[in-house]
Amino acid sequence: MPKVVLAYSGGLDTSCCLSWLKDKGLEVITYTADLGGGGDFGQLSKKAKGCGVKKVYIQDLRLKFIKDFVFPALKAGAIYEGKYPLATALGRPLIAEGLVAVAHKEKAQYIAHGCTGKGNDQVRIEVSVATLDKKLKTIAPLREWSLKTREDEIKFAKKHKIKVEATKKSPYSTDLNLWGRSIECGILEDPAHEPPETIYQLTKNPRSCSNRPTYITVEFVKGIPLKLNGRKLPAVSLIAKLNSIAGNCAVGRIDLLENRLVGIKSREIYEAPAAVVLHLAHQELEALVLDKETAQFKKLIGEKYAQLVYNGLWHSPLKAALDKFVQETQKNVTGVVKLKLYKGSCICVGRKSPQSLYKKALATYEKGDKFDKSAAEGFIKIWGLPYQK
Ligand code: ARG
């Protein structure tokens, strides 16, 4: 029997995929990557086995996700369209790597996923899979089957004896990992409509936040956050802890009307407390330690990097080349940033670095000024020369 490795979340979509693939005469192996989105993996495994799956792979990739995907994107300053820290987008190429590895181990010819036919995720997974092994074929049941609505899927599931959880039906489609949560569909599809408070899970309502600001410090070494509030923490714990601290201050809510790769505009809400804090802190530290030309040029690189990640080109030569550039710029990105979190806002209130390029003697308007004002006159004359009539 030909084998297929299915990216499996245990939800309704991928459970239907599972049975649909079996109906096609394939032996299904499930693959689940833990990127910190939570969930009961024992339950998930039971569910897959209940559907007749013999091999269930569940892999804890939290550390790899943070070290090899999130931190490079953080160092690059990769934020899509000025707002989205790319939680979902960064997870896909890693899931693709996992699928390909299992396919090789199991000698499977196919991989399958439960992405819809009009989103970015199908592109990200399939482009990565093809880049890693072009002989593997992909099956995307949601692009092929005739199930149109959730009700169709529930009917299909019941027919195939898939347990449909009695949870109340959520009108939203969500995705969660350590770097953030994405929420779309339902009322959010009206971009003029304010998102209801009930969609949020990682961020508190600003109204119910403390009336006192929360101060935190983040310490970076060569662009990587190593300490939170003076304490060294393992990467995964640092992100998790920061999600909780910043989320408690309502920090990290993002409302983005975005340009999808597949040519449509869509409205997505994100919650990314740690990502928002760390990107800001990292930018503030870079402002202190990077020379002007590098700092300004790097902004363009960050934008391009974000587009590559968003557009599914993680495994591309340009992305690899940009990583080298970014790495070179991070040599001196070491220091501490102090931030103030308050009812949804996060502002930097201090930064310090042994590699600081800030020179008080040149900047000061007070005693001890070393700036050579006499040189300014000639500088201005020549600077303005091209514009004189
Ligand atoms: N729009 C985001 C992206 O393309 C998130 C996609 C997944 N969103 C979701 N709610 N399932 O990266």
Shape: elongated
Query: Largest sheet, if any?
Result: 5 strands, parallel
What is the tally of beta strands? 14
CATH topology of the largest domain: Argininosuccinate synthetase, chain A, domain 2
Q: Overall pLDDT, averaged?
A: 97
**Percentage of residues assigned to helices:** 40-55%
| Widest β-sheet, arrangement of strands | 3-2-1-4-5
CATH architecture of the largest domain: Alpha-Beta Complex
* Alpha-beta content class: alpha/beta
For the record, what is the CATH homologous superfamily label of the largest domain?
A: Argininosuccinate synthetase, chain A, domain 2
What is the CATH class name of the largest domain?
Alpha Beta
Distinct bound molecules: arginine
Total number of helical segments? 13
Uncertain ranges? none
Rounded to the nearest angstrom, the distance between the terminal CA atoms is 81 Å
Task: Supply the number of structural domains.
Answer: 2
- C-alpha-based Rg, rounded: 24 Å
Strand content: 15-25%
What report would you give on this structure?
41% of the residues lie in helices and 20% in strands. With 389 residues, the protein is of the alpha/beta class. It folds into two domains: 3-67 and 88-174, 3-Layer(aba) Sandwich (Rossmann fold); 178-352, Alpha-Beta Complex (Argininosuccinate synthetase, chain A, domain 2). The protein is elongated. The relative contact order is 0.13. Residues 88-89, 120-121, 173-175, 182-184, 268 line the site of arginine. The site of arginine (ARG) has 11 residues, from α4, β6 and β7.
